[in-house]
Every structure is written in C-alpha cells, then in structure tokens.
Amino acid sequence: MRRLTDALYPLTTLAVLLLAWEASVRLFDVPNYILPSLSQVGEALWRGYVEGEYWRHLGFTLTAMLWGYAIGSGVALVLGALVAEIRLVERFVFAFVVGLQSVPKVALAPLVIVWFGFGIESKVVLVALICFFPTFINVIAGFRSVDPAVVDMMHAFGASRRRILWEVKLPGAASSIIAGLQVGVVLGLIGAVVGEFIASTRGLGHLIQNAATNLDLGTVFGAIASLAAIGIIGTQLLRALQRRVVFWERGGRGGAASVVTEG
Amino acid sequence: MSLAAAVATPLPASAAVEFDAVRLTYRTATGVLPAIEEVSLAAAPGSFVSILGPSGCGKSTLLKIAAGLLPPSAGRVQLAGEVVRGPRRDVGIVFQQPTLLPWQTVLDNVLVPARSQGLDMRAARSRAMDLIALVGLAGFEKAYPHELSGGMQQRAGLARAFVHEPAVLLMDEPFAALDALNRERMALELLEFWSRSRRTVLFVTHGIQEAVFLSDRVVVLSNRPARVVEDIAIPLPRPRTLDTMLMPDFTLLCDRLRRNLFAASGAAGRA
Ligand SMILES: Nc1ncnc2c1ncn2[C@@H]1O[C@H](COP(=O)(O)OP(=O)(O)O)[C@@H](O)[C@H]1O
Ligand SMILES: [Mg+2]
C-alpha cells in the first residue's frame, strides 16, 4: 500500500511533464517533424504493439540484452572473485582490466560489428563488453569490504577458504555486487542500441534510426519509451532482488523495523 | 536456568598454554613496528589467567598468535604440549567485537565452529541451543544479529566460542563493549561457567578489578612493544562472589596492579 502511494509522486511529475509537452505542441504549433504530439506517439505505440510491428524489434533488443547481460555479468562475477581472492590473478589481470575500462566501449562497436557480423551476435558481445565493468569493479570492491576481523574469526574456528568464500565473502559483497548489476542494466542497454544503430536490420535502435531518417518522430519516441521501459523494469527487478537478498542491511527482516503499538 | 546447572555434560581435559619468548614485529607500509618485545608466560591446565595491559600494547596480537592466526617473529606458543602452527580445533575464541555474520541467525552463528570443523550437527545443534539459553538468549535462536543489542550480540559470540567444546578459551576483552552493569553480570556468569568446566582461559583485559576478580593469575604487560612487567598469583578464595570485591586483599591486589600498570604505561603514579 505504502509503495503504491510512494509511486504516486513521480507519476504525478510525469503526468505534468506530458501535459506540458502536449500543451506546448498545440499552443506553439510545433511541426511534428520537430516534436510530435503525445497523441502521435500514442498512435505509434498502438500501431507498434497492437498491430505488431514493434514486437520483433523489442524481442531482438531484449534477446541481445539478456544474453549479453548474462554473459558479461557472469564473467564479471567469476573474474572479479578470482582477482579479489587470488593475488597472482590480481597481478596479471587487474591493471589490464582497469586500463580497458577507460576505453569508451562504444568506440569498439564498429570493430565488434566487423568481427561478429550484422546479426544478433555482435549486439550480444557489445552488451556483454559494456555491462562487464561495473559488476567486475563492484565484485572486487565488495569482496575487499568484508571485515577482516570476521575472516579472522572464521579462520580461528577452522573454516576452510571455500567456506569463508561462500559464508562470508559472497554475502558480504552481495550488496555491492547487486549495485554493480544495476548499473550494468542501463549500460548494457546502451551497448545494444549502439550496435543496432551501426548495423542491424532489427531492434529498437534500428527502429529509432530508421524512423528518424523518415522524420517519423512518433515512432522514435515510441521506441525510446520502450527502451525506457526495459531499463526501468530491469532496474526495479534488481532493486527487489537487493531488498530480498540483503535483508540485514535494512531495519528489520520484512522491511523497516516496525513497532507494535498497544491500546 | 542457572549457568552452572546446564553444564552437566562431562568436559574434555583442558590444556596448558605456554608462550615461550614470543616476539612479534609487524611489517607496515611505513616500516616495521615492534608489537611484542618478548613475552613468556604459562597458563596451567584449567587455570584462569588474565593478561592486563594498556590499550595498544599488543594484547590482541598476543591472542592472535595463540590462536594460530599470526606466526610469531620469534619464539613459540605451545598448546597442550604442541607448537601452535595454525588455528586449532581445541581452541575457542571470543573477540572484542561480536564478529557475527549479519546474514545468519543466532543459532547458525553459534554453529559456525561446528560447521567449519565438520562436527556431528545434531549433537552440535542441541549443544548450541543449551549454550544460547545459558547466555540468556533463549527465544532468540532465529533472530538475526541486527535485531539484537550489542550486549546480546556479544553473548552470542560467547556461546559460539563454547560450541565445539574447546579445551582452551582465548578471550579478547569480551566485555569491553558492554555497559558496567552487564559487564559485572557477565563476569559473574563466566566465572560460574568456568568453575564447572575448568577450561584453561586466557583473558585479555584492561580492567584491573575484572582481572583480579576472575583470575588465578594476572600478567601485566608494558606499553608497546609488550613485555611482561609483572606476573602475580591471585590467592583470593573461590568461589568468588560480589563480596570478594569487598575483601581487603582484593583492594590491595588491585592497588598493586594499578601502580604497576601506571609505571608500565609511563604515566605518573602518585606515591
Ligand atoms: N595488522 C597490523 N599491522 C600493523 N600494525 C598492527 C597490526 N595489528 C596491530 N598493530 C599495531 O600493533 C600494536 C598492538 O596492537 P594490539 O595487539 O591490537 O593492541 P591491544 O589489543 O593491546 O590494544 C598497535 O600499535 C597496533 O597499531
Ligand atoms: Mg585489542
């Protein structure tokens, strides 16, 4: 119930913005190749999703996103854990990976297209490449944030390294890891769209570029809204995961600690 | 339930702990830091020995060495006649901070040593339940650490140190985080518990009265780098109660230790 009313405030802001948009388009007679009216965007969305044209684009982007995200985040988890846990791996890998991080990954997009083709593979690779870094860095930071006194305690009671990894380091790093995964959603989406901009015959990015070339801004905004929806849903899913997994970082187990009032 | 009544099970023999010319120097980014100049001391099996010293003098370091978490730079520690080379199953530790795992319940936290050492979990669980009741946490087995007060967390840490029935207990200022009242209560309970189980206890503290009240012997350390300034027996009769603190001998012993501690820490003790 509380969550519902909480959502009301940003939704109000959204409604005001949309109204202002519609009003200014009508008042100032803005041509629709500069800014379409809301109804035109709605119409484009309706056509897209009810008549079905958008679905294959959405499906393409989503598929690229999911695969790339799973691969990039999975590799980040494993490699991050190895770097944090094994000194030798850290020495060989860490500086290299951090150096790569400062390369804008988007600049690699044309190269990735050349290597992996116009199909979905190149988009998967781009998404994986981009969403790898935030998770990788956060895994390492998370592992390093674990209280050494707790690790000492586990050692003192005879725990193996493996047990310490599973019972202490992973849960201790969970919050930081999920935060990295959250950033990864948004960045990964950028990777997918950029890949589709450069060379693709499908995907929401392709749809945007195509429609923009034809000055069909209704469709452009429709596709952007679809991308925003993917990003918001993904982020919210991870927030929910955060709340479930890292329950000890809040007041109580079922949310903020509640007080029982009597009388 | 009284603390002592619950300790009905026969207990394993306790073991002697001996520090033999132990030295330790930390290597830091800025150079070397001698923490322990040279410490030799021995705790007989079943005795309660307190290590008293100003803060930062190397008390925790000393316990870490005994726990096998830190190799000494020179010298050695022997436990039950064996040189300590790493963490041992027959040692239980209580740390200054509770060091509980926030994502595990009190029961699971108390069971950490049992799980880590692959003990029979059925037996360990029932022992853990007894110990949790013993430290006054009955009903909180399924609670998470963040739902407990600091004192309750420290009690859970105490129960954890006993769950694998160690022969030697290392306690690093276990009551430092408690308020004065709880501190005295816990000291009394610990004493009652110890008098039944008679495990060897090495108890680190900077509380003079606490050390005298609890111990058979008190070892006073100097400022860092630590060396033994004094090693005295506490011949007060047992069982000790709150009345013990009113005995003239108690006051005399405290006074003597206080003077030594003042001298050792370089502060001016009034004559
Ligand atoms: N891991 C470490 N590295 C470097 N110096 C340390 C380390 N642990 C403790 N020290 C230093 O060693 C000295 C003794 O520390 P400690 O044994 O914790 O003292 P105490 O427990 O008596 O307060 C302190 O000066 C502390 O700063
Ligand atoms: Mg200390």
Short recap of the structure:
The complex is a heterodimer of chains A (263) and B (271). Chain A is mainly alpha-helical.
Give an overview of the whole structure.
- The complex is a heterodimer of chains A (263) and B (271).
- Chain A has 263 residues and is an all-alpha fold.
- Chain A has a single domain (37-262), classed as MetI-like fold, CATH 1.10.3720.10.
- The longest helix of chain A has 38 residues, at 161-198.
- The model of chain A is unreliable at 252-263 (pLDDT under 50).
- In chain A, helix 2 crosses helix 10, helix 3 (55-85) runs antiparallel to helix 8 and helix 3 (55-85) crosses helix 9.
- The radius of gyration of chain A is 23 Å and the shape is globular.
- Chain A has helices at residues 2-27, 38-50, 55-85, 87-101, 109-116, 120-144, 148-156, 161-198, 204-213, 217-245.
- Chain B is of the alpha/beta class.
- Chain B has two domains: 3-90 and 166-266, Rossmann fold (3-Layer(aba) Sandwich), CATH 3.40.50; 91-165, no CATH class.
- Chain B has helices at residues 59-66, 106-110, 112-116, 121-134, 150-162, 180-197, 208-214, 248-264, and strands at residues 17-28, 31-43, 48-52, 74-79, 82-83, 91-94, 168-172, 200-205, 217-221, 226-233.
- Chain B has a ten-stranded mixed beta sheet with strand order 5-4-1-2-10-9-3-8-7-6, sandwiched between helices.
- In chain B, a hairpin with a 4-residue loop joins strand 9 and strand 10 (226-233).
- Residues 1-11 of chain B have low confidence and may be disordered.
- The complex binds adenosine-5'-diphosphate and magnesium ion (MG).
- Residues 59-60, 96, 172-173 of chain B line the site of magnesium ion (MG).
Question: Count of DSSP E strands of chain B?
Answer: 10
The average pLDDT of chain A is: 89
Q: Give the distance, in angstroms, between the N- and C-terminal Cα atoms of chain B.
A: 47 Å
Low-confidence stretches of chain B: 1-11
Present the secondary structure layout.
The complex is a heterodimer of chains A (263) and B (271).
Chain A: H1 2-27, H2 38-50, H3 55-85, H4 87-101, H5 109-116, H6 120-144, H7 148-156, H8 161-198, H9 204-213, H10 217-245
Chain B: E1 17-28, E2 31-43, E3 48-52, H1 59-66, E4 74-79, E5 82-83, E6 91-94, H2 106-110, H3 112-116, H4 121-134, H5 150-162, E7 168-172, H6 180-197, E8 200-205, H7 208-214, E9 217-221, E10 226-233, H8 248-264
Parallel strand pairs in B: 2-10, 3-8, 3-9, 6-7, 7-8
Antiparallel strand pairs in B: 1-2, 1-4, 4-5, 9-10
Helix pairs in contact in B: 4-5, 7-8
The structure holds adenosine-5'-diphosphate and magnesium ion.
